[in-house]
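Quick bug: Amino acid--[acyl-carrier-protein] ligase output formatted oddly.
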Amino acid sequence: MDMQVSFLDRLFDAGLLIETGVEGLYGRSGEFEGVIAAFERLIDRTGGEDGAEAIRFPPGMNRAFFEKSGYMKSFPQLAGTVHSFCGCELDHISLLKCMEEGGDWTEGQKATEIVLTPAACYPLYPTVAKRGALPAGGGLYDLQSWCFRHEPSNDPARQQLFRMREYVCMGTEAKVTEFRQLWMDRGVKMMQDVGLSVEIDIANDPFFGRAGKLLANNQRDQSLKFELLIPVTSDVKKTACMSFNYHQDAFGAKWGLALEDGSVAHTACVGFGLERIALALFAAHGLDTKDWPDNVRTVLWG
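Here's what came back:
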């Protein structure tokens, strides 16, 4: 934890991250944003010839879709909902009085039809399902979104609001598993090209509760999730900066994603944690991008 706090303080002192008073909620400097923009261009150069359909969803999604996705069943500890004042003038007077007295004014808020997006791909599945059967060869999609996960921490790599870039593949089992392996190979090369030490390891999602342990064990046993790990605040406990996930036909069956022949589509995704990758670069090469190695600067900025 000391190394995490130390690195966070250095980022604050350098002005790369801006403190807000809430753990895991930070402003970003132009230099920090410039690193993310440069790395996204590297992503574009790596996957741009694949012909993915680019879609950008907002950081909030339809609550009904969120509920159907099953996210609350598996990860209630991470979910974030959007609440708002929906009262009348008398309710507003009560609200103001509550605030003046230092009470909990949030008790009068009601849930809206929007929840905070937990992963960039979650709004994609119902969107594609509405279009009908997938085209011959399946579908490939390029996504980027702000995401929310409620896990306050002093670890700068574990932010509550962050950006995720994803490629999602829909098709046959053979197609999507080939896609996942392709991006595992690409991911390693990309990180090596920008001077980062990486390793890939089998992983599991943070499923909640006793039943969640069984789901996590099943996910690991079937090698459904891998993560690309990079030192950020520790050389021993490395940070997952990319993930490679094979969902089998789970999302296909849930959302009615059908292939041209009527069979249920399998899906897989690769996710880039953009803030985490930027932090890994600053941790490895220093807090001033002008001092980064020439070969790294060339890869990122040409």
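Actually, after a second look the formatting is fine. The radius of gyration is 21 Å. Closing.
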